[in-house]
Write a structure and sequence with these properties.
The chain has 3 domains: about 10-205, NAD(P)-binding Rossmann-like Domain (Rossmann fold), CATH 3.40.50; about 205-460, Orthogonal Bundle (N-(1-d-carboxylethyl)-l-norvaline Dehydrogenase, domain 2), CATH 1.10.1040; about 470-510, 6-Phosphogluconate Dehydrogenase, domain 3 (Single alpha-helices involved in coiled-coils or other helix-helix interfaces, Up-down Bundle). Helix content is about 50%, strand content about 10%. It is built from 19 helices and 12 strands. The termini are far apart.
Length: about 500
Amino acid sequence: MTQQKLLCDIGFIGLGVMGKNLVLNLADNGFNIAAFDLSDDKVQAVIAQDESENTTNTPRVYGCSSYTELLSQLKAPHLIVLSVPAGAPVDQVCENLIGAGIQPDDIIIDTGNSLWTDTVEREKRYKSNFLLFSSAVSGGEVGARFGPSLMPSGSPYAWARVKPIWEAIAAKVDAQTGKPMVRTQPGQVITDGEPCAAYIGPAGAGHYVKMVHNGIEYADMQIICEAYHVLKSGLNLSCDEIADIFEKWNDGPLDSYLMEISVEVLRHKSSDTNTPLVELILDKAGQKGTGLWTAMSSLELGCPAPTIAQAVYARSISSFKTLRTQASTVLDGPEQPALSEIEKQQVITQLHDAMYCAKICAYAQGFQLMKLAAKEHGWTLDFASIAKIWRAGCIIRAAFLQSITDAYQRDETLDNLMLDDFFAKQLNDRQLNWRKAICHATMQGVPIGALSTSLAYYDSMRSETLPANLLQGQRDFFGAHTFERIDKPSGKKYHVQWSTKARETIQVDT
């Protein structure tokens, strides 16, 4: 097909893995795109792929060689999507577009993993130049191509213009069953079903929700990896045997995309050695920062999210490979007694329940964090809607999310998922197996930070009384920080004169 001049519906800047696939997704859904990247090879590659997949004989993607040409090829007012690395590159593109003549009623959509506070600041900085709108995207390469989960936020006016486009390209869920409606072929379009795209709120809210999504993703992945470690090192099972177990679990309440791909990773054999590739992969995990941001936000807001934080720490400790290798030669672990087949099956059942309970805790922490952030920043977040748009397209998509949707539809003011009747019953019914799984792994010397931290979170949350009373006594002793008393009116502060012989308790005016 010959490239022809045409006025396009959407401008697109940044044609890396995510950008290229979002462009092709937009094209499948009937939109013409003017595409630009600093690398002309990437521009030509997306044009070539569109031509090979396009059956209409009409070009859908027009390649541009400059920001000025990009603007000239767009219908006014301009709508431009950015898929560039977070941070300085976003500002550089925005400045270049200002130089090219972008107008105040034009919309720029940042789809990268920007820190939510950067998005808030950018909207203010550029408000006289254009409308900055943000939309977090989850789903990776395949999601971008065939339907991601989209978390847009910013100007309601901008959302009115973006909404029909975003709902067209988003993943879809069957309204009756709550199950994903999967697109797998170029050109395939799904026009019915519930789109996994919903307006989140003011500037920054969408990226904050995506940040928490990624924090939960960290926790979910670590929980699965710890189960793998128990089965591999504690029960001496092969990768294929573990894949069989995970595949079976994926037919139940643990049904999720992450479980599904874990099965595929475990079954994959190296082409040169014909051994499980996972056993050849260096055990040093990387991270891009969103899990860390989530943990930091939880600390700043005083919202406990220990499972998420532990998942971040697990990646950090994995990076100390040399130190761990050295420590393994001097630090002892327990002897691992042989288990009978019956005992192994018991451990496997207990481990399943431990994973499910820990998963509930991770989501409970994430949703409580979003609730406290909404209160702090004046956002109105619809948690049932957020759970809905995570049911398909995104990395943490799972059948489990329908239960979360149901919980918030029953009670939109729910403070913590563990208080919902359904989730409370799941935890109550499985907590004994959870404890047994933790005991087994601990006695085997297998590290299970996320699974055990989740149990500590559960036990802390269900404890009417915690030892913080002693802690407050300690703080008052060395720092005169004062404390409240359970036998006195709430809000009254007291201090013990620890340095005097009488150690008199006095009320402190506040």
